[in-house]
Amino acid sequence: MYRTHTCGELRLSNSSQEATLSGWVQRVRNLGAMTFVDLRDRYGITQLVIDDESSEELKSLVAKLGREYVIQAKGVVRERSSKNNKIPTGEVELEVKEITILNESVIPPFTIEDESDGGDEIRMKYRYLDLRRNPVRNNMILRATMAHHIRNYLNGKQFIETETPVLIKSTPEGARDFIVPSRMNQGEFYALPQSPQVFKQLLMVAGFDRYYQIVKCFRDEDLRADRQPEFTQIDCEMSFVEQDDILNTFEGLTRYLLKEMKNVEVDEFPRMPYSEAIERYGSDKPDIRFGMEFNDISETVKGNNFKVFDDAEYIGAICAEGCATYTRKQLDGLTNFVKKPQIGAKGLVYVKCNEDGSFKSSVDKFYSQEDIKKWADQCDAKAGDLILVLSGDKGHTQNALCELRLEMGNQLGLRDKNVFKPLWVVDFPLLEWDEDAKRFHAMHHPFTSPKAEDYHLLETDPGKVRANAYDLVINGVEIGGGSVRIFDSELQSTMFSLLGFTKEQAEYQFGFLMNAFKYGAPPHAGIAFGFDRLASLFAGLDSIRDVIAFPKNNSGRDVMIDSPSIIATEQLDELSLKLEVKED
Amino acid sequence: MYRTHTCGELRLSNSSQEATLSGWVQRVRNLGAMTFVDLRDRYGITQLVIDDESSEELKSLVAKLGREYVIQAKGVVRERSSKNNKIPTGEVELEVKEITILNESVIPPFTIEDESDGGDEIRMKYRYLDLRRNPVRNNMILRATMAHHIRNYLNGKQFIETETPVLIKSTPEGARDFIVPSRMNQGEFYALPQSPQVFKQLLMVAGFDRYYQIVKCFRDEDLRADRQPEFTQIDCEMSFVEQDDILNTFEGLTRYLLKEMKNVEVDEFPRMPYSEAIERYGSDKPDIRFGMEFNDISETVKGNNFKVFDDAEYIGAICAEGCATYTRKQLDGLTNFVKKPQIGAKGLVYVKCNEDGSFKSSVDKFYSQEDIKKWADQCDAKAGDLILVLSGDKGHTQNALCELRLEMGNQLGLRDKNVFKPLWVVDFPLLEWDEDAKRFHAMHHPFTSPKAEDYHLLETDPGKVRANAYDLVINGVEIGGGSVRIFDSELQSTMFSLLGFTKEQAEYQFGFLMNAFKYGAPPHAGIAFGFDRLASLFAGLDSIRDVIAFPKNNSGRDVMIDSPSIIATEQLDELSLKLEVKED
User: Fold this and answer.
1) Is the dihedral of CA A439, A443, A446, A452 positive or negative?
2) What pLDDT score does A492 carry?
3) Which of A563, A566, A576, A584 to mutate to test the interface with B (most CBs of B within 10 A)?
């Protein structure tokens, strides 16, 4: 037996008991007369002490111990003379009688401490050592615990967790499918699922009524900072439900998780139409932990011969409380921020609301104090506040103002990671105009149903049609999204023709699911949560990578195992494939 | 709202209440004065009744209903005049006021009943309709329930469920790897994991202590009857443990599952060395629901000038209780059975132990009654029993006798699906001699540790070395297997050289894991259960296909979605790949 207790288990009540521990050497302190060894495992740290009267054999063994050696120590638990109240085992130590070195360790490339000295790259290469660090491992434990709570909740609501296939069919739509050549079916390919969408809808046709799955999905796309080629979804679908049933069920799940994991109780989630979210926050995933909402001051500011404003389609202002004291340098910083290429504003207009009731703005030569007073009134600005104004075409300006608002939220400490403000964004547009292709795309997917009250617009003004589609947003992060599906084949045909499909194309691309729908498809709706993102939000992290045990980098590489990699020509031969990499 | 209750919910206590149900039309019975509709959903069936006094509109709507139509029915619950005590809702019916057809259905290609008239092929093509049938859906629910119990049990024992990557690295060993071309890394490939073996060992190096995962694995191989290219494992690993800790933990899990799922309590699982299993049952996965053990009667029967026996390396007999009454035809049937090519025995010798104490055998001209009496004694055969004897070279004969024993178990009804007899088979050989390659292969994998007491044989007689490897067998089905891993690099080097690797080859193939082991690898051991197989065993099914929602056929095809399939040349171009299917 390697151990009688873990390194996190012994207490004062175990005093005088014999115990055997196993773990990693965190630290050795040789104080001459005695030597202390901090022994670590997943559960904690226990102090071993090798007294002066120990055998020479034991002492010389201890002298050999290095960081991260794996050892077994037998001895007797005793009360410490100098207690450490920072750790649960801090009142005791193990008076060692015998040590066995189970495995040696070469010197690790970075320190195995809560704050490591290793850079990102080296830590990813030696991920198995990075995972030894408490904060990293704790993120994985948090993720596992969340998954368990999610399953408990959904099982309790009669959802059936059902595994859907990973080797599926590539669709012509599937430009970002990973494909998998089949050896048994030469010249044919599977694809890895971007989501189990088709299968979960089939499970509704099959009468499963309530389905969920915590499932790996795959997308072969250029990776932005926070994407992974393989990611995990909490995928759900329900039959005989309307939009509110989905919202209520998954609001329930989210509240349950917040309570269980973070001990946070949240009020009913606000439900905000997409159009309102754009007007108030310039985003379909607003961070509502703080206000600083947009004010459209176009009508107020136009007509004063300030050409920038007069020519602008949209002029939006936000009010940053108490920031009238911002220095020239700080204001220049904000101007540079909004001018960054990825934000793309041309400039920033500011108004300081001075304590004496006067205003100081960057456009004082165009506007009088009375003019500016109107802006301040419209923005509910008080003495001491700072008004920031962006202008230009509507879409870009709203985007830029949204980024500025978030930046101000950061600067003012209004985005506390321990505060959780969930929000349902609803009534998304059904269609999105693709300027390049000169046609509509489905904003969610082609099976999303339009709102019944907008049916009449389908033929006349399709861009105005709202969908029964919804997103769950927490703290400005899109956690999940879904829709009520079309289950009526006539409406589905209309949708396909709106999306520019001929009957034949629709049949070719979606015939299989449409065929299933002929056999009595129930009304159904669903949602999928990004589990990596939800876990990173709960862990207070910025990147999903930190809640994935073995993540890939921005090039889709696992630098630890060095994958992807070249393979033997024989392997390709067996699949009847030949590599033809073009020279650039 | 589509429904106030499910179709399995209404009881006599709901009488006079208004209710709205939604579901599928199972059956319509028009009795002239009234019409009955059986409405079905996942939860049950409720009888709808449309009375004679109903509106003509309602009556004509009901006349249109066909099988599998999806409808919503509003009405009042009332007591039935003729009750059906076979279903929980059988005391009531819904007196219908209003019906809405939610979706029509074309006539399904087979009946949606517990016993369907559909053949295997058509049911797989329309799997979404097959899944509507109660027994099929119930298998999926059983599977989901099992997964939930497994997670509860392992979470309760401080195992951390950790997701390992699906896009990993192909190894030269990985002849049966599915490979996945990378778009972002042209000319390079990921592989899908045959198991998370490397990652779970790395998690032990990382100090996770206890890991599990219910995880999809992949193998691109010719499929035998009961294999799937993608399958699900319950994958586990523990640190600071010995073989007994693994056996005890997972015996605990299995007993817990048997109790929770089947209400079966099982005694401590027997632990049988591999060599003993082979001697007694001719198999490393014996079905111990019944005895009929092997008797090696070589010494007893040789030397009577019966050349078949005299030349045989091994002569084995089993005793089938009460089968002395077997007819000529039945005995011929058994002879044909053992002569089938896949069993491959040359013939079958039998001895009937007559009620009068005499014997009738197929080799009476070589053996006297006294001779045969000795066989009978050795086999513990009583009057009325039938002794069946096979002979030949040892391995093949034991295999054939094993098949014959199982066949007799079937014929005698000794293999009751409601009886569960688990067994640990332990002490597997470490190595397997490969006659073609003239070298040893690792029987489990190259990281499996040899038994300490056999170390001395490693150099002198490696074929005799036993491993710390074990299988869990239930009712003759291999449910899982695992081993205590090597964590000492010197022993690992010895293993590699035994397996015929040069230092360079070992480094190339396993260098990555060996490198991780240099940083303080703890002693560790693990096991993996075939979840599909475990679920099919618990469901009393013969094939794993029946516990998989969307399985593939023997050619690795999903006939429902028609996958794998050809893909567009552009998709291959983007991956720098070219198809070169050889003409046969």
Assistant:
1) negative
2) 86
3) A563
Q: What angle do CA A526, B216, B210 make, to 5 degrees?
A: 105
Interface contact B132-A566, CB threshold 8 A:
no
Q: CB–CB of B550 and A199 under 8 A?
A: yes
Instruction: Judge whether B483 and B455 are in contact, CB under 8 Å.
Output: no
Token digits of residue B421: 């007899």
Cβ under 8 Å to B: A residues 395-434: none
CA dihedral B13, B16, B21, B27 (to 10 degrees): 90
**Closest approach of chain B CAs to the CA of A7, in angstroms?**
12
All structural domains of chain B, each given as residue ranges with its CATH number in brackets, are 12-103 (2.40.50.140), 138-164+194-271+423-547 (3.30.930.10), 290-415 (3.30.1360.30)
Angle between helices A274-281 and A394-411 (to 10 degrees): 60
Residue A290: closest CA among A430, A184, A182, A402: A402
Q: Regarding beta strands A422-426 and A431-434, do their DSSP bridges make them parallel or antiparallel, or are they unpaired?
A: unpaired
Residues of B in contact with A191 (CB under 8 A): 563, 567
Nearest by CB to A188, from B1, B144, B564: name it.
B564
Handedness of CA B203, B209, B214, B219 (dihedral sign): positive
For B217, nearest residue in chain A (alpha carbons): A166
Residues of B in contact with A41 (CB under 8 A): 207, 209, 240
Closest to A128 measured CA to CA, from A561, A553, A556: A561
What pLDDT does B437 receive?
81
> Is-contact A483 A466, C-beta < 8 A?
no
Nearest to B319 by CA among B382, B402, B394, B399: B382
Among A100, A194, A240, the residue to mutate for chain B (most B Cβ within 10 A): A240
CA distance A238 to chain B (A): 12
Instruction: Specify the pLDDT at position B580.
Output: 85
Which helix (DSSP H) or strand (DSSP E) does residue B186 occupy?
none
Chain A contact present for B85, CB below 8 A: no
DSSP conformation class of B450: B
Tokens of B247: 């056996």
CA distance linking residue A125 with residue A139, whole number of Å = 18
Q: How deeply is A139 buried, as exposed, middle or buried, from its count of CB atoms within 10 A (0-12, 13-18, 19+)?
A: buried
DSSP state of B285: S
Predicted local confidence at residue A442, as pLDDT: 86
A241: contact with B, CB 8 A cutoff: yes
The interface predicted TM-score (ipTM) is: 0.95
* pLDDT score, position B444: 83
Pick from B160, B191, B522: CB nearest A144: B160
The answer to whether the Cβ–Cβ distance between A129 and B578 falls below 8 Å is no
Query: What are the φ and ψ backbone dihedral angles of B462, each rounded to 5 degrees?
Result: -55, -30
The answer to whether B527 and B482 have CB atoms below 8 angstroms apart is yes
Task: Please state, in angstroms and rounded to a whole number, the distance separating the CA atoms of residues A373 and A375.
Answer: 5
Q: How many CB pairs under 8 A join A and B?
A: 346
| Interchain CB distance below 8 Å, B550 and A164 | yes
pTM, to two decimals = 0.95
Nearest C-alpha in B relative to A516:
B128
CA distance A53 to chain B (A): 29
Regions of chain A with pLDDT less than 50: none
Whether residue B225 is predicted with pLDDT greater than 80 in this model: the reply is no
Residue pair B185/A557 in contact (Cβ under 8 Å)? The answer is yes
Give the integer Cα–Cα distance in Å for B199 and B236: 11
pLDDT in tens, A340-386: 999 999 999 999 999 999 999 999 999 999 999 999 999 999 999 99
Cβ-contact A227, A263 below 8 angstroms = no
